[in-house]
Amino acid sequence: MKEKHLRRLVRIRKYFYQNKSTILVYFILRVLVILSMLRAASRQDYQSVFLCGLSLVLMLLPSILSHRLDIKLPSTLEIFILLFIFSAEILGEINSFYVRVPHWDTMLHTINGFLCAAVGFALVDLLNRDEQFSIQLSPLFLAIVAFCFSMTVGVLWEFFEYAADCLLGLDMQKDTIITGIGSVALDPTLTNTVIRVEDIQDVILVRGDGTFQALGLGGYLDVGIHDTMKDLLVNLVGAAAFSVIGFIAAHKKGDSKVAVRFIPQVLPEEEDTDE
Questions:
Q1: CA 269, CA 96: separation in Å to the nearest integer?
Q2: 17 and 93: one domain?
Q3: Which among 10, 111, 127, 232 is most buried, taking Cβ atoms within 10 Å?
Q4: Together in a domain, 120 and 245
């Protein structure tokens, strides 16, 4: 037990020595998260305090999983993950970048597709390298599995957003302003004919008590569907981008300068005992 503990300490020491840039980024982001938490606490914004605490925990996961699973996360991949967590939770949610910065959500969903494909590729690649498993996939199938894994995560996340909006009254599926719609619900003949409505300039809300309000949106308020489909589309772009990188890496047996920056590697046995 003592020897195992010493090997773990040696591995942690090597990690800090070999990943100075990752440690620097982690330290800076952690300080910024703590400052955001203190600011939120001073305003009694406990939801933001919770999100800051969640961010601090999520930022620990890459290094924890790396040591627990005996794998080496490339510095570029780990920095991407840390920046993604900070951008999504601190900038996106707490500082309202999702609303204030155009295409912020689109950018993050693209990166999410890329990172999830990297995770999916790494999981299958680890099985491919493990002698205890008989699974051996070709580079093409590795890329396909990575792509499908990323898209599955993207779909499950959209399910989560939909459930949160329906059950908790949130607005995770952001609405989109459009100027034209086509709907069979507007067909008075009930013959499944699509009725097109173009050049929509505004939406008027009519409440149960007879009062009404013009929203001044400049178009029709689409609830969620455009946002969901756009998120899945850019997730596909990110997943496809990494799948190509993964395919090239697997085809060249890992000899790819781009791939080694994103694909986790299994630590050799001698690294556990080498001091």
A1: 46
A2: yes
A3: 111
A4: yes
**272 domain residue, yes or no:** no
Q: Among residues 37, 21, 151, 122, which one has the least CA distance to residue 86?
A: 37
The predicted model gives 237-260 an average pLDDT of 81
pLDDT above 90 covers what percent of the chain? 57
Q: Are residues 70 and 152 in the same domain?
A: no
| pLDDT tier, 145 (very low <50, low <70, confident <90, very high otherwise) | very high
Q: Which residues pair with 181 in a beta bridge?
A: 197
Distance, in Å, from the CA atom of 1 to the CA atom of 199, rounded to the nearest integer, reads: 73
Amino acid letter for position 248: I
Residue 202 structural domain: 176-222
Please identify, among 101, 124, 141, the residue that sits at the C-terminal boundary of a domain.
Answer: 101
- Give this prediction's pTM: 0.83
Residues 126, 31 share a domain: no
Smallest CA-to-CA distance from 174 within 210, 134, 223, 126 is with: 223
Tell me the residue type at 271: E
| Last residue of one domain, picked from the residues 55, 71, 101 | 101
At 76, list the tokens.
């570029």
pLDDT at 18: 61
Residue 271 pLDDT > 50, yes or no? no
Give Cβ neighbours of residue 214 (< 8 Å, ≥ 6 apart).
202, 203, 204, 205
Question: CA angle, corner 51, sides to 46 and 54, nearest 5?
Answer: 125
Higher pLDDT, 268 or 71: 71
275, part of any domain:
no
**Residues 157/150, Cβ–Cβ less than 8 Å:** no
11 and 94 co-located in one domain:
yes
- Using pLDDT thresholds of 50, 70 and 90, give the confidence band for residue 8: low
Q: Give the per-residue pLDDT at 117.
A: 92
Report d(CA 136, CA 183) in Å as an integer. Answer: 49
